[in-house]
C-alpha cells in the first residue's frame, strides 16, 4: 500500500484523488473496520492529534463518526460552532466583532492542531451555489494542515467513500454493477446537491455502470457531469442521464434515490433566486418515491442506499428503508471507517 502521497493533503473532492488512491483508502478502511470489530487497539495512529470541526449546518452521522473516529485513533476531535466562535467569513461578508476572516482562523488553528474539517452549505452562504466550496478552498489556501470537507454545496466526498465501500462489501466488485443515483421527492426544497454529485463521481471512478435519473429541472453541475463522462471513458464503466425513474431502475444492482434541490433555488448566475419555482418542480414530481413496486424493478439482489437522514414517506417508504434490501445502516457505519482511513493517511 503506497501512502506517502496522502500526508498533509486536503480532502475536498474525490476529483483530486486518483483511482489508485481511492482504492488505498478503501483497503485501509476495511482493515480499520476489521480491527475495530476485533477490538484491536489502533489508537497509536493519531495519538495526541487534534481535529478541529466547524459545523455551519446540523449533523448526526458526520459529527459523530469524525468524533468517534478521532477517539479510536488516539486523538481528539474538537467541535466548533461558528456562532460561538467568531464566524469564519470571507472578505465582503465580514461583520465587526461577529465574524473573523477565514485566513486568520485557518492560520490560528494551524498553530494548534493537525486538521480542520468543515461542513458548510445552503443558508450560511444564502444558497449561492459554490459559495461554501469557496470558503473551504480559502481555508485550504491559508491552513498549513489538511482541510477536510465534511460536505459543502458541491461535494460530500466522505459520504461517497462510504457509499462505494458498501457496494464493494455487498458485491465484491464494481465491474458491471449498475448504480442508479436518482432524485426523489421531498417536501423541503432546501436540499444540497453534494451527495448525488459525489456519489456519481465515486461510482464512475470505480468503473460502475452509472445511471443518473431525475425529472427535468433537477440537473446537476455540468462540471461534475463532464468529470463523470471522463471517468466512465477512463475506467471502463458507463454514464448516462435519464428523466425517467422506473426505466432507470430496471436491472439495477444499486438503487440510491435521494432528494436534491432544483436549480432555480440558487442565486444568479447559476439559478434564479426563485424558491417558489423550485417548489413547483418538486410538487410536479411527487411520485418519485422509492416504494416496494419500484424497488422490484431492480435486480433481485439489488441494494437500497441512502445517505440519511431520509424523508420517510416522501423519498422512500418505511417498507423499503426497513426492508431486507436496505443497507443504509451499513452505509452509515462505513462513514466511520472511511473517515478514519483518510484521517490516518492525511494527518500523520
Ligand atoms: N449523511 C450525512 O452526512 O449525515 P449527517 O447530515 O447526519 O451528517
Automatic annotation (TrEMBL):
<dbReference type="GO" id="GO:0019240">
    <property type="term" value="P:citrulline biosynthetic process"/>
</dbReference>
<dbReference type="Pfam" id="PF00185">
    <property type="entry name" value="OTCace"/>
</dbReference>
<dbReference type="InterPro" id="IPR036901">
    <property type="entry name" value="Asp/Orn_carbamoylTrfase_sf"/>
</dbReference>
<dbReference type="InterPro" id="IPR006130">
    <property type="entry name" value="Asp/Orn_carbamoylTrfase"/>
</dbReference>
<dbReference type="InterPro" id="IPR006132">
    <property type="entry name" value="Asp/Orn_carbamoyltranf_P-bd"/>
</dbReference>
<dbReference type="GO" id="GO:0042450">
    <property type="term" value="P:L-arginine biosynthetic process via ornithine"/>
</dbReference>
<keyword id="KW-0808">Transferase</keyword>
<dbReference type="GO" id="GO:0016597">
    <property type="term" value="F:amino acid binding"/>
</dbReference>
<dbReference type="InterPro" id="IPR006131">
    <property type="entry name" value="Asp_carbamoyltransf_Asp/Orn-bd"/>
</dbReference>
<dbReference type="GO" id="GO:0004585">
    <property type="term" value="F:ornithine carbamoyltransferase activity"/>
</dbReference>
<dbReference type="Pfam" id="PF02729">
    <property type="entry name" value="OTCace_N"/>
</dbReference>
<comment type="similarity">
    <text>Belongs to the aspartate/ornithine carbamoyltransferase superfamily.</text>
</comment>
<protein>
    <submittedName>
        <fullName>Ornithine carbamoyltransferase</fullName>
    </submittedName>
</protein>
<feature type="domain" description="Aspartate/ornithine carbamoyltransferase carbamoyl-P binding">
    <location>
        <begin position="9"/>
        <end position="169"/>
    </location>
</feature>
<feature type="domain" description="Aspartate/ornithine carbamoyltransferase Asp/Orn-binding">
    <location>
        <begin position="195"/>
        <end position="345"/>
    </location>
</feature>
Amino acid at each position: 500500500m503506497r501512502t506517502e502521497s496522502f500526508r498533509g493533503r486536503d480532502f475536498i473532492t474525490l476529483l483530486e484523488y486518483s483511482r489508485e488512491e481511492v482504492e488505498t483508502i478503501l483497503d485501509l478502511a476495511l482493515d480499520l473496520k476489521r480491527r475495530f470489530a476485533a477490538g484491536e487497539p489502533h489508537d497509536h495512529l493519531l495519538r495526541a492529534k487534534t481535529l478541529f470541526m466547524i459545523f455551519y449546518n446540523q449533523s448526526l452521522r458526520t459529527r459523530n463518526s469524525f468524533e468517534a473516529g478521532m477517539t479510536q485513533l488516539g486523538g481528539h476531535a474538537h467541535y466548533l460552532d461558528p456562532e460561538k466562535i467568531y464566524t469564519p467569513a470571507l472578505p465582503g461578508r465580514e461583520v465587526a466583532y461577529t465574524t473573523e476572516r477565514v485566513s486568520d482562523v485557518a492560520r490560528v488553528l494551524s498553530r494548534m492542531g493537525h486538521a480542520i474539517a468543515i461542513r458548510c452549505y445552503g443558508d450560511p452562504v444564502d444558497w449561492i451555489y459554490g459559495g461554501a466550496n469557496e470558503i473551504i478552498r480559502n481555508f485550504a489556501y491559508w491552513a498549513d494542515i489538511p482541510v477536510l470537507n465534511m460536505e459543502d454545496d458541491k461535494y460530500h466526498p466522505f459520504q461517497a467513500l462510504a457509499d462505494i465501500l458498501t457496494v464493494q462489501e455487498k458485491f465484491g466488485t464494481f465491474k458491471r454493477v449498475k448504480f442508479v443515483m436518482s432524485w426523489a421527492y421531498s417536501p423541503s426544497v432546501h436540499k444540497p446537491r453534494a451527495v448525488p454529485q459525489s456519489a456519481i463521481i465515486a461510482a464512475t471512478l470505480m468503473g460502475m455502470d452509472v445511471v443518473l435519473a431525475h425529472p427535468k429541472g433537477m440537473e446537476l453541475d455540468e462540471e461534475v457531469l463532464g468529470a463523470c463522462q471522463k471517468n466512465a471513458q477512463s475506467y471502463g464503466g458507463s454514464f448516462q442521464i435519464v428523466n425517467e425513474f422506473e426505466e432507470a431502475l430496471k436491472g439495477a444492482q444499486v438503487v440510491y434515490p435521494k432528494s436534491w434541490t432544483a436549480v432555480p433555488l440558487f442565486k444568479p448566475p447559476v439559478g434564479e433566486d426563485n424558491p417558489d419555482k423550485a417548489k413547483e418542480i418538486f410538487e410536479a414530481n411527487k411520485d418519485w418515491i422509492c416504494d416496494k413496486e419500484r424497488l422490484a424493478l431492480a435486480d433481485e439482489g439489488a441494494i437500497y442506499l441512502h445517505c440519511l437522514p431520509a424523508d420517510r414517506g416522501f423519498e422512500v417508504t418505511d417498507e423499503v428503508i426497513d426492508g431486507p434490501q436496505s443497507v443504509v445502516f451499513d452505509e452509515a457505519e462505513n462513514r466511520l471507517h472511511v473517515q478514519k482511513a483518510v484521517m490516518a493517511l492525511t494527518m500523520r
